[in-house]
Amino acid sequence: MAAGIARKALGSLWRRPSPRVCLLVLGIYVLIALLGYAQMLPDIDASVGGSEDPPSWHWATLLGTDILGRSVFYRVLAGAQTAMTIGFLTTALVIPFGTALGLAAGWFGGRVDAFITWLYTVVVSIPDILLITAISYAMGKGLTSMCLAIAATSWVGVMRLVRGEVLKHKDREYVLAARAMGVGPVRIMVSEILPNVLHVAIVMAALVLLSAVKFEVILTYLGLGIQEGTSWGLLIAGASQELTNGIWWPLAGTVAAMFALIYSLSVVGDALRDALDPRVG
Amino acid sequence: MTAYILRRLLLAVPTVLGVALLTFLLFNAFGPDPVRTALGQHATPEAIANLRQQWGLDRSLPTQFVGFLGQIVSFDYGKSFVTGDDLGTQLRAGALVSLSVVAPPFLAGGAISIGLALFIARHREGLVDRGARVLFIAGMSVSALVYVLVMQYVLAFKLGWFPISGYESGTAALRYLALPWLVLLVVQLGPDIRLYRTLFLDEAAADYTRTARAKGASDGRVMWRHILPNAWIPIITTNVTTIPFLILGSFLMERFFSIPGIGSLTIDALSRGDLPILKAVTILSALALVVFNLISDLLYAWADPRVRLG
């Protein structure tokens, strides 16, 4: 069933030209991240030309060089690896956690529901940026704590939607039939209800990934996120100072890379919703 | 009505308690020791013990938590660790500045978005609509950061229309606020217009709209007299509930343009380990959310006769 949903989603994305291109772009970013982990991305600290050379037609100097003669393009690729890592780690935390809580709240009701809903209300009562900064303050700055912090604020959306779907399905005939046949509650939850609410989780995954990438850049830029390694936030922070000297390519390159990823994610997210949400179209 | 309001406020008590507990745990129990942050690596044990006692951190965690709850109830958040200033005055001054950063673009942006969304909804699925959709997704895909940097560079640095950053109080503030206003306005347009377009199209699909058209009302009349009055309800309620979240925009703008509001206060407090400020800001925004949610529900009941409070 789950594989069926995934196939249906991918199929419908592939049929239309604009989501297809965006899906390919996302594939490229995944590839960049994987190459990065395989140590196959070029060295970001190597000098590839003079100081602050403008862009030219070579891989290394496609986006020019920075003040130390290092390739801006290679640094943007490394930033993509960081962004994808944080995006995927956060999504991998949020989707199972939010779905499980939503299932439990919707299915068990009563005290379980009251407790989970209370947790939800508490989290949504604190503006995201405050909660994220509070968690990274408590846990120290870095990649793991940032993933956890963004995850702690974004599971609520998944939980709320899944809970709503479960409430709709709870009293349908197929669930009653399974019950009448003596299927246990956990089994009903996992093999009957979960496949029917999974489309919500899939659509939310694209949104969570997108907001995690955006938050990473802003938090790192503000000095609250990644401290070591390369991040688009750090690149933009450096580039904004060089901008006043007319050095535009580090900023333009980083922004273009961010734009391609976020735009593709938005289009794919919208297309997924159109394809999987039974209420639309 | 009064009974409803009282009951809603009572129902908010567990939420506020939860926020207080979460805030307290994050800052007082798990966070780095603010005494160490203030005194540095080479402080003597006596100095550490003294400061800890002065800040009330030598008490047990449950006692500290009860003290924190007392502060929430009395709205007296004590003094800043670092400056020793009374927090009430600091927060009030900061909130006023933050409000002057976010309120004008919020209101102006709302009005502009509604106007443009009406226009776009009238040309549904036409060239305008499709062009606008691509433009808005593209606009929203550019990080807010980029809008700030580019507008700061072009409008302030290159063209010299605005000061690059800074702040003065009084009417001189207008000079410094103009650019942050413009940035917030632009950043907000995409998501807002998208939301309003959906709202208007939902209303346009309703039976009463078809009836109005069937009896021969013009497009303009259907828009102004039928769709807009009905769409006001979701517009008002969504806007009221987003007011507490304007703090996010304020955070970014204050940081980029060096404006001394709540956002700057909070970010400074984070780097200095100034726990009272951090806890006060978190709790106050949660309280604001509770209040604005209640206002939104009351407005909803007032605007929509089908809704009964109870």
Q: If you had to describe this structure to a student in words, what would you say it looks like?
A:
The complex is a heterodimer of chains A (281) and B (310). By secondary structure, chain A is an all-alpha fold. Chain A contains 10 helices and no strands. In chain A, helix 2 crosses helix 3 (72-108). The model of chain A has no long low-confidence stretch (mean pLDDT 84). Chain B is mostly helical. The radius of gyration of chain B is 24 Å and the shape is globular. Chain B starts with a helix and ends in a 7-residue tail after the last helix. At the A-B interface, helix 4, helix 5, helix 8, helix 9 and helix 10 of A face helix 1, helix 6, helix 7, helix 11 and helix 12 of B.
Helical content class of chain A: over 70%
- Main sheet: strands, sense, barrel of chain B: none
Helix-strand topology string of chain B? HHHHHHHHHHHHH
Average the pLDDT over all residues of chain B and give the rounded result. 81
In short:
Chain A has 10 helices and no strands. With 281 residues, chain A is mainly alpha-helical.
Describe the structure using short key phrases:
heterodimer; A: mainly alpha; elongated; B: 310 residues; mainly alpha; 13 helices; 78% helix
List the helices and strands and how they pair.
The complex is a heterodimer of chains A (281) and B (310).
Chain A (H helix, E strand, L loop, with lengths): L1 H14 L1 H21 L34 H37 L1 H16 L2 H12 L3 H27 L3 H8 L4 H37 L10 H12 L5 H28 L5
Helix pairs in contact in A: 1-10, 2-3, 2-10, 3-4, 3-6, 3-8, 3-10, 5-6, 6-8, 7-8, 8-9, 8-10, 9-10
Chain B lengths: L1 H29 L3 H6 L5 H10 L6 H14 L12 H36 L4 H15 L2 H15 L14 H32 L2 H8 L4 H24 L3 H12 L4 H11 L2 H29 L7
